[in-house]
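Figure 2 data, in text form.
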Amino acid sequence: MLWACLHFPALPLHAVFAAQAATEQPCVVFDGPRQRPVVAYANTAAQARGVRPGLVLATARALCADVDARRRDADAERAALQLLATWAYRFSGQVSRGEPDTVWLEVGASLTLFKGWPALQQRLKAELQALGFGAYRLGVAPVAAAARVLALNHEQIALRHRSAMLNTLNAAPVALSGLTAQAIAQLHGMGFRQLRELFALPRVELARRIGPDQLQWLDVLRGDAVENLALYQPPDRFSRRIELDALVDNWQPLLFPLRRLVHELALYLHVRDSGVQRFELCLEHEDRGATRIPVGLVSIQREAAALYEFCRGRLERVEIGAAVSAITLIADDLPPFRPGHRDLFEPARSEGLDWPALTERLRSRLGDDALQGLACVADHRPERAWRFTPAAAQARASEKTSSVKKQTSTTMAALPSSAPTGLRPLWLLRQPIPLRQQPAQILAGPERIESGWWDGEDARRDYYIVRCANGQRAWAFVPVDADNGWMLHGWFA
């Protein structure tokens, strides 16, 4: 096995400040009691002004008056670490989280797929920068614990063989070995500074000084003992919340956190090989609950750009009655994603949108009721055999029908069908009108329709497909119980 350890020393900063952590604005995260908070992390701009972790916050403000200081958020750090673990799941089926700032992934089984470690390393670097986690340390070793020690001591290092790993571990400082703080203090008091000095000691004497549990950890570090890692599995639902820095009373400032949420949702869907058709945006208010915005799609989607456009269209049409303090995206229904089949020799497509994408964009911009489809109704009378339906409802009904089509095909074949089987015109008139000219030729018919006695609109007609003198094909009928001549009801293309 070959484990890659990704250590993110600035994860607390990223969890609180997001993209601001790497900007020129000095930013710090503080922790500790309210009466005497202490700087826990500082970005590069703050460190350049003399602010260091461990300083009292008042001292940090004296050194840098314009520093942006925020309290450490453990929940946000766990959410960011889960996002990184979900992202790592794209490259390996064995991923583990080490709180508060470490992710392991087994890359030995993925090297062939990604064309070797250099290519995989470049891809990891590019995608981490796209996610906003460009500041990280990387260590690769046959043992996960050793990979973390290597990552803490080196910026980027990859050792695929155990002998090279052991030689590098010998020079690692005891303070970064993963031992407990008490054991490290005791070893420093005895004059030990590097791991090579511990490895050279008799095991009985070393166990007597630091305890059997710490000796077991050193065995794990060298690969002499079994290493147990809790493997990560993506959750069954997606739920992500972003608390805003200030209250927002219109939709434009919500677009930046919305883009982050949608991007994380798309990443999660790719990892699970799933899509989404229905999810919910929740705008939280400090004084009156939350505003819930359901988002229903005609087809299953998972691309970040498309999902963002749909969400933005919904958000633009929402009236925000109160200031927004946080935004949450929740997706519970995650069906499998099946990409559309394409012809092997399909010609080059234009830059226009395909029909599902166009449908979604129109619905998000104009509303659900602005775009409608047609659905069949079980009625033999042509003017009553169809109705308008919302596009989303029609898509769900079509999906449900296709999912059970194979199961019911045998049964349906044995049952008589009451649906009309005659040819129907593409252009059906709202009401029949008299045919101005007599048919020149009868092409098919008659097809008798006799229905509607139960609702007071009885229809008794004999339909024919006829050709007019000008060559057009018409769908016309002669009433059975009336002598009104030919009545036109539709035209064929």
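Caption note: The chain has 15 helices and 19 strands.
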